[in-house]
Amino acid sequence: MSRRLRRGAALSSGGLLLALLVACTAEAPMPTPTPTPSFVSSYEAPPPFDLAPLTGEVVPVDSAIAPAFAAKIDNHPDARPQVGLDRADVVWEILVEGGLTRYIAVWQSDIPDEIGPIRSVRPVDPSIVAPQGGIIAYSGGQYRFVVAMQQAPVYNAIHGQRDTEDFMFRGDNAPAPHNVIVRASQLAASQSALPAPPQQFPFSESLAAATATKEGTATTRIDLRFGSASTPAWVWSADTQTFIRYMTGGSPDRAAGGAQLSAVNVVSLRVPVQVIQSIPTVDLIGRGEAWVSTGGATVAATWSKSSLTDQIRIVDANGVAVRLAPGNTWVELVPLAGSVSFTRPAS
């Protein structure tokens, strides 16, 4: 075959191949792109909430509107077990005569039907209740102490007065004077126009995030000495994640319903005490040494209070506010002549 014929055949074959390729290409279907699915978020916004002002706990919106309900609670041996004390948001323990202590207990998020027994007020009490406002229930007291309380910005509910006769009575729980009981929920309802208290302490969002839990020294026991007749203790319970309370002598400290008293936060403040006209007088205007125990640990701090209506301010060594865990709090006003000691876990 001549060179010209071979060349023509090659061209003819190439053309045919090209035509076949073009035909195949033209006939092959184009791939269909897969559409990207639309993103659908599964996030659901949490329902709105408020924080209970005395515990820092999450509560439904507009539910924490009750006024603070404080009462001077008897802690004489004949007064125990106390009614409703286990349901208090905050309890302050204060030295009185004979080396004994009394409490100012405060309810707001959970006000029992009855509380008590109540007793008479002491000089430091207005400094405790003035920052929160609301109601203070007590059985009376020396004229000068009652006047000082009546000058504080709180509603004074005093046993034996006309405006409280429907709300206070002598019960059969103990002999007089350790038996004045208050119909607390009814009394609170009668003063519902009073405003809710402002937040009294800084709170973290959880027990794990509290200052003492994160930064403190592990603590299994807190021993307090107010005087020879009052040496209560708190013991850490990993089961309940609270400190549980024991009376002087080591017996469990229980409320009338049988529950052992416990606290998510135990705040120990060293305070100066002078005996004035036979009455131990605690001075809460000033500053001093403090410890905050939460989550089985304790952090050292400093407390300060500038005036009657100012709240207690508690800061760490860097001047940063100590945050408590959500839950109830006991504040121990331990005299400088007393003592506070902490037990660490055995190594």
Tally of strands: 22
In quaternary terms, these chains amount to single chain
The number of helices is: 5
- List low-pLDDT spans: 1-14, 16-25
Radius of gyration, taken over Cα atoms and rounded to an integer in Å: 34 Å
In terms of DSSP E residues, the strand content is 25-35%
SSE run: HEEEEEHEHEEEHHEEEEEEEEEEEEE
The residue-averaged pLDDT reads 91
Secondary-structure-derived class: alpha+beta
For the terminal residues, how far apart are their CA atoms?
Answer: 105 Å
Please bin the fraction of helical residues.
10-25%
Main sheet characteristics: 11 strands, mixed
Global shape: globular
Would you summarize the structure shown here?
The chain is 14% helix and 30% strand.
Walk me through this protein's architecture.
The chain is an alpha+beta fold. The protein has five helices and 22 strands. It has helices at 3-27, 125-129, 143-150, 184-190, 211-215, and strands at 49-51, 58-60, 69-73, 90-95, 101-107, 135-138, 155-158, 168-170, 180-182, 217-218, 221-225, 233-237, 242-246, 262-263, 265-271, 273-276, 279-282, 286-294, 297-305, 313-315, 329-335, 339-343. The strands form five sheets. Strands 3, 4, 5, 6, 7, 10, 15, 18, 19, 20 and 21 form an eleven-stranded mixed beta sheet that branches. It has a five-stranded antiparallel beta sheet with strand order 14-13-12-11-22, with no helix packed on it. A two-stranded antiparallel ribbon has the order 1-2. The longest helix has 25 residues, at 3-27. The radius of gyration is 34 Å and the shape is globular. Residues 1-14 and 16-25 have low confidence and may be disordered.
